[in-house]
Design a protein that fits this description.
This protein is mostly helical. Helix content is about 80%, strand content about 0%.
Length: about 70
């Protein structure tokens, strides 16, 4: 995993605990998890098939440009 061994990961974890404290780590993890979930949801909405209205607008723009 990115060329990091177990000792490097433990050192990084120790630094994070020292910086943020053990009480704030769950809040940070929760925020990070919700951010990832929101990103995935937004990405899946964008990957859906565009509606016919959007397709015709794109086709019209391409005809004007090309």
């Amino acid at each position: 995993m990115f060329g990091l061994g177990i000792w490097e990961l433990l050192i990084i974890l120790a630094i994070v605990v020292l910086l943020f404290g053990s009480k704030r780590l769950p809040m940070i993890g929760e925020g990070l998890g919700s951010m990832i979930t929101n990103f995935k949801n937004a990405r899946s909405k964008n990957s859906e098939k565009p509606s016919e209205d959007q397709t015709t607008v794109i086709e019209q723009e391409q005809k004007q440009a090309g």
